[in-house]
């Protein structure tokens, strides 16, 4: 497969599945932008195995073996994600462990796991979201990647907590609850109420406590932005601010996270990016 065709297919994947990330990282120079598309396509494929696969345990095991072969130079040259990713690995000093940890995170979604504490949720968030930031650091800030690892982890925490707060209803439909049990119990809100989609004062307190945690991690993630090269600083900060705006949108919609997917409009995104 032609390399540019592979990158084009990876771009179509992110354009379809994440308009926020696509919008933010489109600001990068072409080579770095394409590298981000390739990493996203890898992550999306793993996510789809778990969420859409008929036999996710078996399919994920096959994918792990496929990735291990990729690492020693053996891959399907007709598969765009591998063709594009091979080019990325040849250009940048990629963090292989982050890719492997991300697969471990997706395995967590196959298990019937109850998230008792905030630490449990942060551990999950590291594996499914912070790892993506660690994958991208060698592309976005090759000279400062080691120094920025904590900030990448914090941004992953913030974004995944935002996902959890936005997707409560969608996750329930998959029999998943990511809000920590300790926070539900603290505010006297039960799993039964959650499954009945009850939005009351207790639910708002639960939601806002998790949102406060997300906001704190957004702040921490932006503390060392000056270490990013100029061409990467705006996309990374833009991605953080665009994602953070989802929290405000949920509040505007009176915390309806059960029957609708809250998103930031294109006009609002334009305004956020223009104000940076």
Automatic annotation (TrEMBL):
<dbReference type="InterPro" id="IPR008949">
    <property type="entry name" value="Isoprenoid_synthase_dom_sf"/>
</dbReference>
<dbReference type="Pfam" id="PF00494">
    <property type="entry name" value="SQS_PSY"/>
</dbReference>
<keyword id="KW-0808">Transferase</keyword>
<protein>
    <submittedName>
        <fullName>Phytoene/squalene synthase family protein</fullName>
    </submittedName>
</protein>
<dbReference type="InterPro" id="IPR002060">
    <property type="entry name" value="Squ/phyt_synthse"/>
</dbReference>
<dbReference type="GO" id="GO:0016117">
    <property type="term" value="P:carotenoid biosynthetic process"/>
</dbReference>
<dbReference type="GO" id="GO:0004311">
    <property type="term" value="F:geranylgeranyl diphosphate synthase activity"/>
</dbReference>
<dbReference type="GO" id="GO:0051996">
    <property type="term" value="F:squalene synthase [NAD(P)H] activity"/>
</dbReference>
<dbReference type="InterPro" id="IPR019845">
    <property type="entry name" value="Squalene/phytoene_synthase_CS"/>
</dbReference>
<keyword id="KW-0125">Carotenoid biosynthesis</keyword>
<dbReference type="InterPro" id="IPR044843">
    <property type="entry name" value="Trans_IPPS_bact-type"/>
</dbReference>
<comment type="pathway">
    <text>Carotenoid biosynthesis.</text>
</comment>
<dbReference type="InterPro" id="IPR033904">
    <property type="entry name" value="Trans_IPPS_HH"/>
</dbReference>
């Amino acid at each position: 497969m032609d390399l540019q065709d592979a990158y084009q297919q990876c771009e179509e994947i992110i354009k379809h599945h994440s308009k926020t990330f696509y919008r933010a990282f489109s600001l990068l120079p072409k080579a770095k932008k394409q590298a981000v598309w390739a990493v996203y396509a890898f992550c999306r494929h793993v996510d789809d195995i778990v969420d859409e696969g008929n036999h996710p345990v078996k399919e994920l095991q096959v994918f792990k073996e496929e990735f291990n072969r990729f690492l020693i130079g053996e891959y399907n040259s007709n598969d765009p994600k591998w063709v594009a990713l091979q080019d990325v690995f040849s250009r940048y000093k990629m963090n292989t462990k982050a890719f492997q940890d991300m697969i471990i995170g997706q395995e967590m979604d196959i298990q019937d796991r109850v998230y008792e504490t905030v630490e449990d949720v942060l551990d999950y968030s590291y594996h499914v979201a912070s790892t993506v930031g660690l994958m991208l650091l060698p592309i976005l800030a090759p000279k400062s990647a080691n120094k920025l690892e904590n900030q990448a982890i914090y941004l992953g925490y913030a974004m995944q907590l935002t996902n959890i707060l936005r997707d409560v209803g969608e996750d329930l439909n998959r029999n998943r609850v990511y809000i920590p049990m300790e926070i539900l119990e603290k505010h006297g809100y039960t799993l039964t109420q959650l499954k009945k989609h009850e939005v009351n004062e207790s639910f708002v307190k639960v939601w806002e406590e998790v949102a406060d945690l997300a906001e704190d991690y957004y702040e921490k993630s932006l503390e060392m932005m000056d270490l990013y090269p100029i061409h990467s600083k705006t996309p990374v900060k833009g991605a953080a601010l665009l994602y953070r705006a989802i929290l405000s949108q949920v509040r505007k919609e009176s915390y309806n996270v059960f029957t609708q997917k809250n998103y930031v409009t294109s006009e609002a995104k334009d305004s956020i990016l223009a104000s940076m």
